[in-house]
Q: What sequence folds into this?
């Protein structure tokens, strides 16, 4: 068999040329078949990962805040739940709402104390606030 690349003679059973190393091809009567067409590309589907929010960061709905507000208004039970929610870390949004409720309560107590002090000072001075209100 003669190599088509370097025209060197090789044995008939040789697969590669002994001179240049090129692959020897036997001539066949059949024409080479056209390569099969490449399959059509499949569309790429990207699935979004389900990112679940940890329980401690789960947001409280607007109605949840309304419910907590009503719960905290109950005299004894609301105060107990307010203490529990203030120091509990199971939901940070609920904890922060309870802490903000303490801030509002603190401001209300401060305003009440200031109002009582002013009323007592006016009573000691001798000014009757009700007299001015009813005379107009």
A:
């Amino acid at each position: 068999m003669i190599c088509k690349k370097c025209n060197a003679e090789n044995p008939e059973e040789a697969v590669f040329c002994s001179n240049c190393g090129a692959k020897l091809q036997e001539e066949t009567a059949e024409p080479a078949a056209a390569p099969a067409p490449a399959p059509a590309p499949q569309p790429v589907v990207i699935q979004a990962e389900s990112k679940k929010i940890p329980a401690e960061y789960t947001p409280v709905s607007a109605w949840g805040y309304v419910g907590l507000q009503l719960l905290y208004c109950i005299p004894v039970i609301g105060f107990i739940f307010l203490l529990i929610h203030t120091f509990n870390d199971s939901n940070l949004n609920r904890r922060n709402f309870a802490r903000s409720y303490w801030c509002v309560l603190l401001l209300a107590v401060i305003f009440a104390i200031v109002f009582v002090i002013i009323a007592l000072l006016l009573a000691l001075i001798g000014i009757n606030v009700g007299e001015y209100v009813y005379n107009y």
The two ends are 130 Å apart (CA to CA). Residues 74-129 form one domain. The chain has a mean pLDDT of 84.
